[in-house]
Amino acid sequence: MQTTILQMFKRKERDEETQNVLKIRKTTPTDDTVEAQREEEETQPEEVAAGPSEATTGDASPTAYPSIWKEEQYEQFKQKNEWMYAHNGRLGCTPCHDVKDLGVMASRGVNIAIQWADGKIIPAGQSRDVQLSSLRKKIREHKNSVAHNEAVKILQTANKDILLNMNASSQESVFESTAKVFMTAYYVAKNNKPFTDFESLIDLQHANSADLGRVLHSKTVCVDIIEHVSSQIKKELLKKIIETKSKITVLADESTSVGHKSTLIVFLKASVDGDMEPIAFPLDLLSECAHNLDIALRRIGKVFSVRWVASSWRAVSAVWQSYPALAQHFREASEDDTRDSRERAKFKGLLSKLCSINFLKSLALMADVLTELKNLSEILQNRKTTLPKAHDIMTTYVKRIESFNRYPGQHAVDASQAEEVMEFKGEELRVGRSPIIDSAQFIRAVADNMKERLFTTTANRAQASVAANRKEAYNSLINQMAVLNPDNWDHDNPRFGDNEVRALCDVLHVNQQEAHLGFTEYKASGGRNIPNKMKKLLMAVDTLSPSNADCERGFSTMNNIITEYRSKLTTKNAANLLFISSVGPPCRQWDPLPYVKTWLGKGRRAAHSTSCMARRYTEEESYFSPLWKMWKSV
């Protein structure tokens, strides 16, 4: 039985080989036999010892190139077909993968081979000889295909800037009109306008006799253009950072602005060209479910994580400033006969609590503490604030809050004076049953909480042992950074700060020898001149972000982008709009031409393209059309 099965498989292999030979003979004219043989020789490498002719077994270790090839065979094929790449035992075409869309040629029935573009080409057949023949044929046919050659031409055009160097006036008008469309889409993103405004702006420019071509006028194209511009700018930024090997700080914070989904906003802070001051810019929005996002946030370390308290301070300040008006409103509402008894009782209770001396003293304590926290938050929001400076400011404000136990704040003093006369801003006070906040315990809890949450390099929910080690690491880091300040130098010790600088270089992965020499020159100049060898270390220190203020600014921008009328924006589109709105230059300083070039280099249509349908205009309401005609005749 086994012998019969083996014979059947061998017979099937011979039949497939015969069919392949017949196909080759049918597709090759007899007059071109010599030329076909030459093509066969170009695509077929020299014979290499390949072992038995049976198909390779599953015991062979996986390789990037097909398993039926030896490494020498793959290298020979790769040398003669530079466009080819291999991955997980499959072949693909780099130009087809990069282009994917042939633009005008696609409308003529010429399309990219999906399997070649996605790298999914595998040999056909059972025996090794048949598989080798199959691969050679597929490579030769793809190499000579119209789609592959068009993809190669598109890439060559993009790389050699042929599009920009054409002198034909028609090409100049194509670039000019397409650039105007790009500028319109950029205006929409930069000024947080809805995508639907894009079509209205196109119509307005047409009414002003501006030439914007005949296509690329829909809101869908506006989304594509914004995505293209955003991706190109991000690519250039990240390329610069990688080339200069700049240090980066990753800032992340959670938001639920995008369609009421948990979203992680990610900022990068880095010196883009290696010389300029570090700049923080939004990189992306990451959407995850609440559970996975919570797990991810627990793993993210931090230096400082200060939440803005301005909104809470404004609420407390409003109650303090509007105290008489609130009391009058509650009094009138509690005596209003048009309200039911339950509602009147509620306002009466609010009035009783508001005019309680215990409530006033608690309100004063909250106002004093929140004022200090508000001032601290505003200082940390400054983009020029560095980590050492932020640490000094934090230490100062913790001491200021702790001093309230001995020296009451201004609001607490006003409350004490009101308690003596049992009157505050014209309102009579009474001793109520409202509980009073223990000021000493509250101030101590606030100070301890600030020290625990802020003076560390780990997340808030870390284990106790990990948190203790991280606090020690934070204190060590601050002490190492302190030696960079000339005010802290011990001039009697010529080797002062050497050990700290070496340790800081290890933490920040900066060249230790170079930084040490630069620090020695820095001390020799008395801190007046910063040597070039020292700049990398100082730049790395400045790159560390003292707060998540940039993320909060991103949330503020997102609130302008994602309104109640645009709540269905996808996370990807919201990220593109946020990036351009935050980082993009003003419209008058932005040059759309480089982005038009890369757009057309990818095979996308120009504004004057005639290979597709123009935008269909919606019918306007005709009810007032008689009036329009009358105005035209005036």
Automatic annotation (TrEMBL):
Species this chain originates from: Dissostichus mawsoni
Positions of the UniProt region annotated as Disordered: 1-62
Start-end of Acidic residues biased regions: 32-45
UniProt name for this protein: HAT C-terminal dimerisation domain-containing protein
InterPro entries (UniProt xref): RNaseH-like_sf
